Amino acid sequence: MEFETELTDQELTQMLAAWTVPVPTQRLQARIFHRRQSLFPRNLALGFCVQAAALASLFLLTEPVHHAVRTVDQVILVASYQPKTPALQKSSGGGGGGQRSPTPAAHGEAPKFAPKQFTPPAVAVANPKLAVTPTITAPAPEILAANYDDPLSKLSGASGGQGLNGFGDGKGGGIGTGHGDGIGDGEGGGSGGGVYKPGGDVSSPVLISKVEPEYSEEARRAKYSGIVQLSVVIDEHGIPTDIRVIAPLGLGLDEKAVQAVQHWRFRPGLRNGKPVKVQAAVVVTFRLL
Amino acid sequence: MTAQQAFDHHHQSVYRFVYRLAGRADLAEDITQDCFLALLRHPQRWDAARGGIRTYLFSIARNLAFKRFRDDHADVQVEQDQAVAIVDQRMDQELPVLVAQMVGQLPSLQREALILFEYEGFQLAEIAEIVGADVGVVKSRLHRARASLKRSLAPYSKVKTHGI
User: pLDDT at position A126, please?
Assistant: First the structure.
């Protein structure tokens, strides 16, 4: 029964139609999309405008790095994007606190703002041996009130909140849900949220030592080039932390950029002469000779 | 047509072709990427008088894929062996997987002719342009590929098995 061992043309066509192909992954789409940004002329111009805007707020430009194996990695460190704010002098930052009370922090006046905190605010301290005015780390406007508490709270009874030290639900000696000695939901000092950003009275970190990023083997083989943009937080010791890829490049170059930047060291950003955590953007350019 | 339009129109079909040819998504992604990079870096190499941009892109992708196969020969060979073993063990597996494996076992020149004809809808003359062979040669490869699949896929046809 020879005819039973072979399909007809129609049956073969029907069976072949069953073989479908998955759509390209997000990774491919991202890689090609990024390629288009950097290689197609129209988008190249757009990319150039973005770069030019970033360079306008340039605070550090390093000379091109001559890579050992036929590559040149140019490393440009620029300030991160800063939204328009009403006052440039205003710093960001924040902190939290609490005193393990079962109720949320009570309504009250924010403590005195000071550049450095010695004593976190508390509901009451009976007969202190050494009386120190409680402060939070922030620019110091005039505060005229006797009671220290969370100015945003709606409770009026005396309560220190559910956190440790200070007021509110956070950690640290501040007020609010953050982690530092400031006020708000961020970490560190100041009265906003998050880390300091360059500008106003906060100086930019300065790169003092760097490790050149390597080319990944995959990218080298594909003769792949472009830029990786990273967001980093330079801590008080000048060590980059919280490194995140903002504009990925793919083919392993993102990881190489992050690995290199982890080993960079900075002179930390200063505020009132004191080192503080400052957010910055790092642009790593991968280019084959 | 600009390079950007070529990319928008054809990158998915190029990916599809290489995926079927290579049987691996990561390889297909790499080769698709390289294919468009080649077009962007040397746009002057495309001669519109000789053929459409789609034909040109597929010929680049095809050459890149075969170059990669040569480089990674051992790797690809292992995968094919495994594919055969799986077919032997699981006769009742899903049809798409079976078809992929059977097509994957065809000789590579027959395989590419079949994929270009059956899945991408190219005419014989266009396939000849892509693979750099005469139309008669392409027709022969296509015929052999189809004949081979008609035999190898026959045991898995529901029509046949249910009819006997």
Answer: 63
